[in-house]
Specification:
rod-shaped; single chain; mainly alpha
Length: 263
């Protein structure tokens, strides 16, 4: 469900629904509770409610900060993995210039097939939360077979051959890491703490009574808006390959790899 929402609605739309919806529900709940219990406006229990709000707010704030930082670090790591994989593929393409024409052509064919499979086949699968090794396996295997069958004839070719093999091994490693990141999501316990905590903290603000209704609603709406925006961040950062803030496949279409998209 979360993947479908991220892939079919803009971040702005999700922000309006999540933040606006949280604020609207909080304001409505506060008004209804105040009408049901008019004595709340006198603030007779504000001391106790204030202490409880402070304690719960501190604990919940720490939890949300931890979750958001963890997810942001995960997104940053995923971007690094994608950039590293594309860089290694580009370096192989450059190293291939030192090989005989036949070997270079076969390696270019394998690399071209690989980057096209990553962007056109594997990326949509990752956006849908269904990464597949098979989408690129044939092309990666072809690249390995080309290098395994090639016997360098000069010291110059041996140097570039060793570099190409090293980079190809790195491509395989980064591909595995990228696909693993596509399957990552926030553990259920942290999801329960992040979203369940809001169901505890926001209603507590209803109990903090103020004589002027506008001031109380402003207080409730401010807390609800902050929590709603924080939960929006958790939601959009949880899946690094889905939504508008997702990792882009652009590195596979730039630099030395751009030649494979001009044909």
């Amino acid at each position: 469900m979360s993947l479908w929402l991220l892939n079919h609605f803009s971040t702005f739309t999700l922000a309006v629904v999540s933040v606006g919806g949280t604020v609207a529900l909080a304001v409505a709940g506060s008004v209804l509770l105040r009408r049901r219990y008019p004595s709340l406006a006198r603030g007779e229990h504000n001391d106790m409610v204030g202490v409880t709000l402070g304690m719960f707010g501190a604990i919940y704030g720490i939890i949300l900060a931890f979750v958001i930082v963890t997810l942001w670090t995960q997104l940053d790591s995923t971007q690094t993995i994608v950039a590293s994989e594309a860089t290694d593929a580009a370096l192989i393409a450059r190293d291939a210039a030192a090989f005989p024409p036949g070997v270079r052509a076969d390696l270019d064919t394998a690399l071209s097939g690989y980057v096209h499979a990553v962007v056109e086949d594997q990326w949509p699968r990752m956006r849908a939360g269904q990464p597949s090794y098979g989408a690129t396996e044939t092309h990666l295997k072809s690249a390995f077979e080309v290098l395994q069958a090639y016997d360098p004839k000069s010291p110059r070719e041996e140097v570039f051959y060793e570099e190409a093999v090293t980079h190809l091994n790195d491509v395989a490693a980064q591909r595995r890491a990228r696909l693993n990141m596509a399957e990552q999501e926030l553990p259920p316990l942290l999801q329960a703490l992040a979203f369940g905590g809001a169901l505890v903290l926001v209603p507590l603000t209803f109990l903090y009574g103020m004589r002027r209704l506008r001031i109380q609603l402003l207080f409730v709406a401010s807390v609800a808006g902050l929590i709603g925006f924080s939960l929006l961040l958790v939601f959009v950062l949880d899946r690094p390959f889905a939504g508008e803030l997702s990792v882009s496949p652009a590195p596979y279409q730039e630099g030395a790899l751009a030649q494979y998209w001009e044909r």
